[in-house]
Design a protein that fits this description.
This is Ketimine reductase mu-crystallin isoform X2. With 148 residues, this protein is of the alpha+beta class. It has 2 domains: 2-81, ornithine cyclodeaminase, domain 1; 101-147, no CATH class. The chain contains 3 helices and 9 strands. Helix 2 crosses helix 3 (115-127). It is flat. It starts with a helix and ends with a strand.
């Protein structure tokens, strides 16, 4: 992440996310391509966002990351975009917390109950030590809270 952030902006081609509305089905398709010539990385993340009825067994967000051969254009990998996004987002949050949180912080509070909440909890409890942890009791019952 640090190496990526320190690059000259001309080294990375990463246009703004394109979003295609899928109006008949209350959904959207987001496409986020990027190219890093120096590292030979050509990829895109594709994400669907759909409004689901309560109790639906389908997730509201699904994502896939496609890695392409930069010279020939064929797909070299298809990866779980949800797992990558969860880990990356939590890691960036932990880096921010490490730089910005007060030195004597003792309480972790996770607001939310989905995949992002779980990945943030996993990363933060591995990187930092807390005397207390607060958050949703289970991923399926977001209104219940726990305290350790």
């Amino acid at each position: 992440m640090g190496k990526f952030s320190k690059r000259d902006s001309s080294e990375i081609i990463q246009p703004v996310r394109s979003v295609v509305p899928i109006q008949p089905y209350n959904g959207f398709l987001g496409v986020m391509p990027s190219y890093v010539a120096a590292d030979g990385i050509l990829c895109t993340k594709m994400v669907t966002f759909y409004q689901r009825a309560e109790g639906s067994s389908l997730p509201s967000t699904q994502a896939t990351v496609l890695l392409f051969h930069p010279e020939r254009g064929h797909i070299t990998a298809i990866m779980d975009g949800e797992a990558i996004t969860a880990k990356r987002t939590a890691a960036v949050s932990a880096i921010s917390a490490k730089l910005l949180m007060p030195a004597l912080s003792e309480v972790l509070c996770i607001l939310g109950s989905g995949q992002q909440a779980k990945s943030h909890y996993d990363v933060f409890t591995n990187v930092f030590k807390f005397k207390e942890e607060w958050g949703s009791k289970t991923l399926s019952q977001p209104n219940l809270c726990w305290r350790s």
